[in-house]
Amino acid sequence: MRKKRIAMLGPGTFSEESVHHFLGTTDYEYVPFKLISDVFLATASGETDYSVIPIENTIEGSVTLHIDWLVHEVDLPMRAEWVYPIDMNLIGLPSITAEASVSSNETPLERLESGELKLVPPASWSKITKVFSHTVALAQCRRFLRTYLPQAEIELMGSNGESVRLVRELGDPNVVAIGTMNAAGMYEMGVLASQIQDNPDNSTRFILIGRDEIEFASAGKMKTTILVTPPDDYPGALHQALSAFAWRRINLSRLESRPTKRKLGKYYFYMDVEGSKDSVLVRAAFEEIEAIGCQVRVLGCYPSYNYEVQRHEGNSSLS
Ligand SMILES: O=C(O)C(=O)C[C@]1(C(=O)O)C=C[C@@H](O)C=C1
């Protein structure tokens, strides 16, 4: 039997690291793409069976571009979600890291109580002219960049793996990248500073999307993601929709509004409902919401996995 093919941003990305952690490296064939649009389209076209999509980050919040792709561009159910810890690193050519490095993986940077980094940057950092970064990674390192590399121009890349690869290819010691430790190793680069994200406890939520059902080794907590579009002429429809969950004591772990893209001021509500769409209570809540004229579209009903990690002790497990 052929292995199921999984599309993801890569190589050398957090998406790759996280899916290897979640599904292992042997049972699936992983297919890396440079752009997230290609990750979505690979599974939509049938070239791959599933796609890995980063959907939410501790510091940056929702990755709205990816949510919009799920809602407007492809029709691929969510099959699982998992959380993966994210440490951002400043990566440069090995020739400059000997004098310019302030930390290694083993000795993370010190922080003040406020969470700010306690750092005396090496003089050579003032020569850095450019930082390559993925937009979501950039949003996680704003404070670091503002404080220690204010002179550097930012150039956005399709992924963190691609940022590191391009610095390597360019060969300019004054151009650095934000990226993963794996990418630094893969392209034989040096690490100037590790854990440069604004909050040391930083994680990203990833989802797996695809047409076919998929089985996992352990049972996760079931979640259902829906889109609720209220009718135009019904004041208080959102309040009523929320109370359909509240009085049944069904927890909503996420609620976001996004434009329908059809008319200014018209929104749909993206909701993560704790529980399976097949449970009696959740089904009844959906029926009640539809009865008041709201449209309910199920984006997926899937197991959710947490990542328990003892940071910096190399001891991790999915639960
Ligand atoms: O570029 C990568 O390494 C990715 O996997 C993408 C991505 C994202 O889009 O959120 C994944 C996790 C991090 O939060 C930053 C970037």
UniProtKB/TrEMBL annotation:
Pinpoint the site Essential for prephenate dehydratase activity: 204
- Prephenate dehydratase domain: residues covered: 5-211
Give one Pfam hit by family name: PDT
A single Gene Ontology CC term: cytoplasm
From the Swiss-Prot or TrEMBL record, give the protein name.
Answer: Prephenate dehydratase
The protein's annotated pathway: Amino-acid biosynthesis; L-phenylalanine biosynthesis; phenylpyruvate from prephenate: step 1/1
Top-rank taxon, per record: Bacteria
Mind telling me which InterPro entries this protein's record contains?
ACT-like_dom_sf (IPR045865), ACT_dom (IPR002912), Chor_mutase/pphenate_deHydtase (IPR008242), Preph_deHydtase (IPR001086), Preph_deHydtase_CS (IPR018528)
Source species: Paenibacillus lutrae
Q: Catalytic activity annotated for this protein?
A: prephenate + H(+) = 3-phenylpyruvate + CO2 + H2O
Please report the stretch or stretches of sequence annotated as the ACT domain: 226-303
User: CDD domains annotated for this entry?
Assistant: ACT_CM-PDT, PBP2_Sa-PDT_like
Keyword Lyase assigned? yes
Which molecular function GO terms apply here?
prephenate dehydratase activity
